[in-house]
């Protein structure tokens, strides 16, 4: 017979003892559960200066419901502590590392946890935020305050902020969802605060939203911003700062603001700043900020390469979306950029700020449908290389692509600004000391121009639909890479607003026009050979107030004229004692001559084959005197309008 208390052969408890033990175990678990829900201690009074409820007991009440620990007891292991009174402060000591002894600390309903121990770490194993604020204030000087442990973001969420520009709040703690209940989001920064928050932990898994509202949030891990599903919004004066060669997978929503691209004004920071080789892998949205007049966005690289693999898309209802990209480091945008706006008087623009290189591999769409709108792809510094298509089609208003700086603008894809609208301009031009390359097809563009620097027409470029080729300020249109010569087609016009150069062999086809000067005489140099077909036209400008002042066509190679090349003038009455040289060449070929139209009264066209020039001579003047005067006047002493005058004249028409 087996005894109820013990199995004598096996030496183990019998059934009755096991039943009793199981009952005790269950009751014990119930008691533990009851005790866990009961030991909540609430802060009764806000900490004043030099007080710290984090380590002291005078502001803690008795535990509820059992009364343990007694009121006034310093935080003790095994108890949960709560500050849920709005604007009530729970402070750290003002120096040294500190570890919170309680099991958990909840900051809720607008209460504050103030970290006041500069160059030290506050460790809270289980910090719970439910509408609570964590504020770092290194009031003793520029230094770092650290928070370690774990932070659970409950439904009301939490806010982290650094009180001033000299304070750095380093969050070494992981940000996670609560063990139970609805998870919340996190806000970094408060209104008008400009400190720095550093997220060092790569194990943050919270699923709520992220808002950066002010100051700088430095991210040192690709997973510091939690689960990527919800994304991060950068608003106000806040900035997301990427360091540590990381990849951030989540979507970003950037709210527009007024941006200082020099990075000197902390209230006008770009929304994203990168230092090192970092990647933004999620899509980026551009949304209107509080002031639609300053709807600007910035992606800045301070060193290394900032890679953007997702697309960049603007809110179509915005009245302005200006995306500035650049910095001392390179920027590579592998996705598409789309700024397609529908509001009246909208601005859709992408600006390369330099001084390093910005490369866009994807398609760039800059369109607007509102009257009085403007689209632009501009370079102000460094190089901008666009390998995809630039689509400005079906826009109502002005559209342009311009290089204003000393670097390179290279468009390897097609350009579409169609259809041409006679009331607006659709231009591609170089206005700085750098260069602009057109390598693909061009549609809907009114004018290509070099107002200074160089505009390069690539060997495979198709600019047959462009009406004007403009030159000013010593600018160069370089078509030397075009095999077989660069053709100026019927209906196309090369206009020298001021002095300029066509580089390469050029063919002026029938119906094509060279116009030398619009507001004052201008020189056009062809660095190569020039063939002028029958039916083409050369239009020169004479200054009737200055004897001898006339536009000059200078061909460094061979000038070949077919018959019936028209030569026109802007004045039919000029002083009757002048000599005007309008063409020079290296060699002459062909049997043709210019056919003058509107020849000034009393003058005729004269050719000097020995001197390789042609000009106007007043008929009553003796021929030997003409030759003497002509030799003395070649390009010397002629009145020339200043480049600024010419640029101003061009601006009144085109810009």
From TrEMBL:
Transmembrane annotation, as ranges: 21-38, 616-637
Highest taxon in the source lineage: Bacteria
Region (Disordered): 59-80
Keywords, sorted A to Z: Membrane, Signal, Transmembrane, Transmembrane helix
Stored NCBIfam families: autotrns_rpt (TIGR02601)
Descriptive protein name: Uncharacterized protein
Source organism of this protein record: Candidatus Thiodictyon syntrophicum
């Amino acid at each position: 017979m087996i005894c109820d208390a013990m199995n004598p052969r096996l030496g183990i408890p019998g059934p009755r003892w096991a039943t009793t033990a199981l009952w005790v175990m269950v009751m014990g678990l119930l008691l533990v559960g009851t005790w866990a829900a009961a030991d909540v201690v609430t802060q009764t009074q806000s900490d004043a200066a030099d007080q710290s409820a984090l380590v002291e007991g005078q502001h803690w009440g008795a535990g509820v419901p059992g009364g343990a620990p007694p009121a006034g007891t310093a935080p003790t292991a095994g108890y949960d502590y709560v500050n849920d009174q709005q604007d009530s402060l729970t402070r750290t000591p003002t120096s040294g590392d500190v570890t919170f002894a309680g099991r958990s600390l909840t900051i809720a309903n607008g209460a504050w946890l103030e970290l006041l121990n500069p160059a030290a770490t506050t460790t809270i194993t289980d910090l719970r935020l439910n509408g609570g604020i964590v504020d770092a204030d290194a009031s003793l000087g520029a230094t770092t305050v650290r928070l370690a442990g774990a932070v659970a973001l409950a439904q009301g969420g939490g806010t982290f902020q650094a009180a001033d520009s000299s304070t750095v709040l380093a969050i070494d703690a992981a940000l996670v969802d609560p063990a139970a209940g609805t998870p919340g989001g996190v806000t970094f920064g408060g209104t008008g605060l400009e400190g720095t928050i550093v997220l060092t932990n790569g194990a943050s898994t919270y699923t709520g939203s992220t808002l950066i509202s002010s100051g700088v949030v430095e991210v040192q891990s690709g997973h510091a911003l939690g689960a990527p599903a919800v994304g991060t919004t950068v608003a106000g004066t806040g900035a997301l700062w990427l360091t540590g060669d990381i990849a951030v997978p989540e979507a970003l929503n950037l709210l527009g603001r007024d941006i200082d691209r020099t990075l000197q004004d902390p209230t006008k920071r770009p929304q994203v700043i990168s230092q090192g080789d970092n990647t933004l892998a999620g899509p980026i949205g551009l949304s209107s900020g509080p002031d639609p007049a300053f709807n600007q966005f910035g992606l800045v690289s301070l060193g290394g390469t900032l890679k953007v693999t997702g697309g960049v898309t603007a809110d179509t209802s915005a009245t302005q979306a200006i995306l500035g990209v650049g910095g001392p480091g390179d920027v590579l945008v592998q996705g598409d950029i789309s700024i397609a706006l529908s509001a009246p008087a909208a601005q859709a623009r992408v600006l390369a700020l330099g001084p390093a290189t910005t490369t866009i591999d994807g398609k760039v769409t800059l369109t607007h449908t509102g009257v009085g709108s403007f689209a632009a792809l501009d370079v102000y510094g460094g190089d901008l290389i666009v390998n995809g298509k630039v689509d400005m089609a079906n826009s109502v208003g002005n559209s342009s692509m311009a290089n204003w700086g000393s670097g390179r603008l290279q468009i390897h894809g097609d350009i579409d600004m169609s259809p041409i609208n006679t009331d607006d301009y659709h231009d591609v031009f170089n206005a700085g000391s750098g260069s602009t390359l057109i390598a693909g097809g061009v549609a809907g563009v009114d004018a290509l121009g070099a107002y200074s620097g160089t505009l390069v027409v690539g060997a495979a470029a198709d600019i047959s639909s462009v009406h004007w080729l403009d030159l000013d300020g010593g600018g160069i249109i370089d078509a030397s890479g075009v095999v077989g010569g660069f053709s100026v087609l019927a209906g196309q016009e090369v206009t020298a607003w001021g002095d300029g150069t066509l580089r390469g062999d050029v063919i002026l086809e029938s119906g094509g026009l060279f116009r030398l000067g619009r507001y004052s005489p201008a020189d056009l140099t062809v660095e190569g050979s020039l063939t002028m077909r029958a039916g083409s036209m050369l239009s020169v400008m004479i200054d009737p107030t200055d004897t001898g002042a006339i536009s000059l066509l200078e061909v460094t190679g061979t000038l070949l004229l077919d018959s019936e090349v028209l030569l026109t003038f802007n004045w039919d009455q000029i002083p009757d004692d002048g000599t005007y040289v309008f063409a020079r060449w290296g060699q002459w070929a062909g049997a043709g001559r210019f056919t003058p139209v509107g020849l000034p009264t009393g003058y005729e066209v004269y050719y000097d084959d020995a001197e390789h020039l042609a000009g106007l001579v007043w008929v009553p003047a003796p021929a030997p005197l003409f030759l003497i005067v002509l030799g003395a006047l070649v390009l010397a002493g002629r009145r020339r309008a200043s480049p600024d005058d010419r640029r101003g004249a061009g601006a009144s028409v085109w810009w």
